[in-house]
Amino acid sequence: MDRRKFIASATLAAAGLGIHAAKAGNKPATLSVKRVGIIGLDTSHSLAFAKGLNDPSSKLSTSGYRVTAAYPYGSTIEISTKRIPGYIKDIRAFGVKIVESIRDLLAEVDFVLLETNDGNPRLLQATEVIEAGKPVFIDKPVAASFEDVQKIYTLAEQKHIPIFSTSSLRYMDAIQAAVNGKIGRIMGADTFSPAILEPHHPDLFWYGIHGVESLFALMGVGCKEVARTYTEGTDIVVGTWSDGRVGTFRGTRTGKHTYGGTAYGENGDLTLGPYNGYDTLLSKIIQFFDTGQSPVDTNETLEIYRFMTAADISKARGGAKFALAEVR
């Protein structure tokens, strides 16, 4: 066989193999990758998401999304920054390129996971992403003040850029079962989570947000006032909703770190837990990137941060009730 005939035969054979692979349900080699960039390698979430999208053993690795680049820095909090060198090494194992700036990252990706553990630089980081026109998932906390949270969401709305933020605790199986009607209308809820404090953030923004997010996933918007009891080891925040329902959050700083609670429904009660990990959240992030629609309404996210800010004011006032409407 001469050279031209050999090349033609090889080309047809390759095309046939491609058709066979497609019929077998495999992704064609030419399928374009939806490039995801990560900002911040100071949290285990970054590695969990990279593994979920890039590791062939992950059930979400066939989504078409792949973490292709990461900018490691941003945080100034020692507990976070000391993790960065190790996480750079770990994430490279998933084929992720390390870049020198957010600007460099944005030039190479289509979607962004804003993961910097420190909420203080989030306004500047998110602004750069939004101005570049990239849909962005912002991990907890959105920022280190309610004012900055508002600014981020306002800018995203003005620029028509999709934005999504939530705690993964929202997607515990039992919480979603309650939300989807397993116990009928939810009449109230108690949730708990660790509530470790970090001096550069409002108290509940740093870690208590997990249990607060769980509470709002169940109760929805409409909390009108909160009252907070604080001790060195525990927080109890009682929220009263405008329809008369009551929801409570218990934040713990002693003992084993656990997550859970109870949802009270018109047809019975439901124990919440256990926590299932990041896969369900990652599937929601993929859905968000696909559709450009946040699974969590902006008003609910803003009310979560208003609730936590009001809880700080209640603490400062000795546990007195404080109206969410007064949080500006």
- Main sheet record: 7 strands, mixed
Look at the helices and sheets and give the structural class.
alpha/beta
Range of strand content: 15-25%
The shape, in one word, is: globular
Quick summary:
39% of the residues lie in helices and 21% in strands. By secondary structure, it is an alpha/beta fold. The longest helix is centred in the first third of the chain and has 21 residues.
Describe the protein:
The strands form two sheets. A seven-stranded mixed β-sheet has the order 12-11-7-10-9-8-13, covered by helices on one side. Strands 3-2-1-4-5-6 form a six-stranded parallel β-sheet, sandwiched between helices. 39% of the residues lie in helices and 21% in strands. It has three domains: 1-29; 32-164, 3-Layer(aba) Sandwich (Rossmann fold); 169-326, Dihydrodipicolinate Reductase, domain 2 (2-Layer Sandwich). The radius of gyration is 23 Å and the shape is globular. It is built from twelve helices and 13 strands. Mean pLDDT is 92; it is low at 1-30. The longest helix is centred in the first third of the chain and has 21 residues, at 3-23. The protein is an alpha/beta fold and 328 residues long. It has helices at 3-23, 44-54, 78-81, 84-92, 102-106, 122-131, 146-159, 173-179, 203-206, 209-219, 279-291, 298-316, and strands spanning 34-39, 65-71, 97-98, 111-114, 136-138, 163-164, 186-194, 223-230, 234-241, 246-252, 260-265, 268-272, 322-323.
